[in-house]
C-alpha cells in the first residue's frame, strides 16, 4: 500500500520489493496534509482540511503513478476519492492509473464514469490528430459539419 508520503518520494527504492502499488487515498491524504481525517472540528471549520483534490495530494498520487510505471509496476487506488470526486477519477485516468477499487455500492457508477472519461480522452486525441493531419479553415469545417448533420 502506498499510503505514506515517503513512498511518493522513493518509488524506485520500494519498487524493488513489490509487484505493484496500491495508493490508499484516505491515508495518503491524511499524511500528506498532516491532518487527522477523523477530526470533525477541522472539517467543520473548512472541509478542505481533508480533501484528496488538494494539489499536494494529487502530486503525490501523480509521482507514484509516473515513477512506478517507469519501473514497469502497476498502480491502483483504493479509498474514497474515486467514488466521491469524479474529477479525481478523471485525473487518475488521465495520468494512467491501472485499476480503481471502490466500495460495492460505487462500482457501477465508477465504471461508467471511467468509461466516459476514457472515451473523452480518445475523442480529444483523435480530434487533435485530425487537426494536425487535416487542417481546415473555419468556413470549411462549418460546411463539413453542416453537411454531416443536415445531409446537405
- Tell me the name of the CATH class: Alpha Beta
DSSP helical segment count: 9
Supply Rg: 20 Å
What proportion of the residues form beta strands (DSSP E)? 5-15%
Unreliable sequence segments: none
- Amino- and carboxy-terminal Cα gap: 57 Å
Which outline best applies?
elongated
Q: How would you characterize the largest beta sheet? A: 3 strands, parallel
What's the CATH topology name? TIM Barrel
For the largest beta sheet, what order do the strands appear in spatially? 1-2-3
What's the total number of strands? 3
Q: What's the helical proportion of residues?
A: 55-70%
The CATH architecture term is Alpha-Beta Barrel
> In sequence order, what are the helices and strands, one letter per element?
HHEHHHEHHEHH
The CATH homologous superfamily corresponds to: Phosphoenolpyruvate-binding domains
Q: Pairing-aware structural class of the strands and helices?
A: mainly alpha
Task: Report mean pLDDT, rounded to a whole number.
Answer: 93
Brief sketch in words of this structure:
This protein has 152 residues and is mainly alpha-helical. It has helices spanning 5-9, 11-15, 25-33, 40-45, 55-70, 81-84, 86-95, 107-133, 138-150; strands spanning 20-24, 74-78, 99-101.
